[in-house]
Amino acid sequence: QATLPAPAAPADSPGSVVTMSDRTGLPSRVPYLIIGSGFAGMAAARAIRASDPLSKVLMIGDEPYPPYLRPPLSKELWRRKDDRVKAMLSPLGDMRRNSWLFVEPDSFFIEPRRLHLADTGGVSLWKGRRVIALDIADKRVTLDSGDRIEYGKCLLATGGRPRTLPVFDAAAAQSPEVAARTAYFRNIDDFQSLRNKANQAKSVIVIGGGFLGCELAVSLTEVAKKTGLEVHQVFKESGTLAHVLPPHLSEHTSKFIAQSGVAQYPGERVTSVDWDSAAGQVKVGLSSGRSLSADLCLVAVGIEANTQLAESAGLEIDPGDGGFLVNAELEARADLYAAGDACSYYDVLLGRRRVEHVNHAEESGAVAGRNMASEPADPDRKRSTYQHQSSFWCNLANTLAWDAVGLVDSRLETQSFFAMPPPASDDGAAGSDTAEDYQYPGVVFYLKAGRVVGILLWNLTDEIFQDKKAFAPSRLNLARKVLAERQLADPAALQALAREFDVY
Ligand code: NAD
């Protein structure tokens, strides 16, 4: 009878040696430390594990959840029934059946106290903790619990937090009622709190005409269908998403949101916030002199990168956009990387950028993870350069959905091409900005110094495209190719390009 030899214990690799504290039983030295448990952090953990298969990775995050997708929190989740939402918000049980929100169930992650015991390595998630100081010289972080951890390589994937408005801060400091009725929105807890409060309220004022303000205003109309909630939206621009869309598409978006039942106040800033005790509502004064009162205010005026660790670490911050300054390999200092919303990186094609979308978080996290795990002793090692042109999308309705790549900023010159409603007067793409009905597909080119630097695909889904051309690259990849080729933007070339995107 043959006896199979016992499998050999895996040899320690530099990435698999974890030291535990005798005092707390928690890790005191790890080869890979990831600060932040969002999409960038998770993508980095996966990339490290793929490159260094026995590696032990410790991820620290201040949220009580494992990594999850944020985009559904302002969109899809508002259109689901209560029991479905409950299942989706649970990181337990059969994730593939219940939830596409979480990347992995809770059970995927190794308990921090057991990380040193994992023979083949893995990812440990230390939840509900913040890193409050970073010492680059000693390669050590300090947690809010007082624990200290030394690292071999560290990633800053700290994301961002909602920007506040001083006028709301001042009012909330004076009045607990204003504080209780002012909401910000970033995470699962914010979603649950806003949903509960909106269900109780008769009226809500959304401040902000950006992505979150628009998506949540439309999502709150789902509550309005059941409860009669009044939804108001105040924004300083003349149209919604005006920082991204050219004026005709911003106007079209505003019309759509208004038709969904949102009362809009364009060109307005909030000048005062008070508690109206007689009405039991928050009173919001606007720059035109008029005022609005409501049970609830939702402030959605952008995010700030979480770069508080820069001070203790002596790290450089992008003076324009915020974010830890990193090179094209996403390195801030030796053995220290940054990815996702919190980094200002050097895009070799388009220059320095800070991007706040999930595809960027995922792709930049993966590049940072690969570079963290590349073998330092290997003189021929190749670092990955972060060259991916990340995409993002906005979906307000089936006929108001778009994807974009590159610099999509309405301050740039734009050229739009739209399919004309049938019968079309010509057989091809309509010229710039002529179509009145923007429920038809279109493409917008953003131009800088005569070249295409951004592309927005309006109501053009990839599924339709792939049906038409069997082996065609997806439209987003075509857009990425156009950017990479640094296309010159004379009108004839743009018209021809619009046809390549199937806009006719
Ligand atoms: P945003 O940058 O899209 O829009 C900010 C809005 O706030 C703009 O209308 C701006 O004019 C306004 N604003 C800024 N300062 C103001 C001030 N002092 N007073 C009044 N208004 C002011 O940010 P957001 O809408 O808050 O979204 C938050 C984050 O979530 C962003 O990172 C965004 O990219 C992300 N997000 C993305 C999507 C998507 O890609 N579809 C959806 C939701 C959220």
Features:
nine-stranded mixed beta sheet, 14 helices, alpha/beta, binds nicotinamide-adenine-dinucleotide, globular
How does this model look, in words?
With 504 residues, this protein is α/β, with parallel strands linked by helices. The chain is built from 14 helices and 27 strands. Strands 1, 2, 3, 4, 5, 6, 7, 19 and 20 form a 9-stranded mixed beta sheet that branches. Helix 1 (39-51) packs parallel to helix 11. It is globular, with a radius of gyration of 25 Å. The termini are far apart. Residues 423-435 have low confidence and may be disordered. It binds nicotinamide-adenine-dinucleotide. Nicotinamide-adenine-dinucleotide (NAD) binds at residues 74, 165, 208-213, 215, 235-237, 243, 269, 300-303, 356-357, 392-394.
Secondary-structure-based class equals: alpha/beta
Please bin the fraction of helical residues. 25-40%
Q: How many strand segments?
A: 27
| Global mean pLDDT | 91
List the ions, cofactors and other small molecules found in this model: nicotinamide-adenine-dinucleotide
Low-confidence stretches: 423-435
Proportion of residues in β-strands: 25-35%
Major sheet summary line: 9 strands, mixed
Estimated radius of gyration = 25 Å
Shape: globular
Total helical segments: 14
Distance between the first and last residues' Cα: 73 Å
